[in-house]
Input
Amino acid sequence: MTGLRARATAARRRARLPFNARLPLNARLPLNARRPREARRTRRTRLPYGVLLALLGAALLAAATAGIAAGSVGLAAGDVWRIVLHRIVPALVEPTWPPVRETIVMDVRVPRVLLCGIVGAGLSVCGMALQALVRNPLADPMLLGVSSGASVGAVLVLVLHVSLFGAFSLPLAAFAGALAALSTVYFLARSGGRMTTVRLVLAGVATAEVLSAVASYLIVTSGEPRKAESAMRWMLGGFGGTTWELVPIPAAAVLLGTVALLGVARPLNLLLAGEEAAASMGLNAHRFRAWSFVLVALVIGAIVAVSGSIGFVGLMLPHVARLLAGADHRRALPVVALLGAAFLIAADLAARTVIAPEEVPIGVLTALVGGPFFLWLMRRKASR
Output
């Protein structure tokens, strides 16, 4: 009789029923019993995966259409798609618009919107991967100091008037700075013993602070106000002056990086369960983290080289993706890529139109959104 009473008490506690609720002595509720309201909320928040991808794809197309149509010369959504289709398949659509409009759409706005989507997808995918690698929901793609290294390289080009590679001088210098920062962080994390997550994060934070100070010093001591202002605006992030020549390198980096991360989705899932669980399944966590950090840092370096430093995108959207698709990276990575692309295109549209004809640095807008989200996330984590 005592065993039956204990079993009924345990079942009552699992079901979260009042202490004085009446249960038969032989009652056996399932271990995953929930309160009815909590169960209904869980069922409501999950859409079928195919429907979710279709909705996010539609949202991305809508954001891209709005980003191409909006500007000093407004265009209708139908005209935008007719111009794009005419450029892809000339025989499909008869051109009835002035040639200048086709130039505006295909040579000015489409490259910018496309680069926004690529950068947003890359930052979001890398953010989700980093949060799994360091098992910290507050991790951000700028964690390893790669952004600060890219900023130093770009500021050197802008301040010292370096133009050895023409239009590619700025992205190449930023990419070289990102690689140098990555090498420094990796060396500091490995020196004195085996590389651990804590050592890597501390080395990244320290390197980022030093490199940010170097970039600020170069800007302050520059004798040309215009160049200093240009460097400062680049550090705040933006897509002004985007051309087709800037698209292929980050597009290839983001595509290859996303495919590689999808290929290691199972080890990423294992790391979420803890190092002991991952080791029990045969995963060398330290080696996997080292190679994953190199991959993520290279993708981020390629992105920052063309867009500047844009924060909080990789912090916010992985959490939204997990709410929509769950924690399995095989499902969450495509979702977060679509979310990031649509979000950054919408943010760039707002940056161009809020105080038109002036343009707000996109890093300012993402910080205004990401700062409160970061505080909410900290409070939510503390309450748990």
Notes: Confidence is low (pLDDT under 50) at residues 14-44. The longest helix spans residues 99-133. The chain has one domain: 116-384.
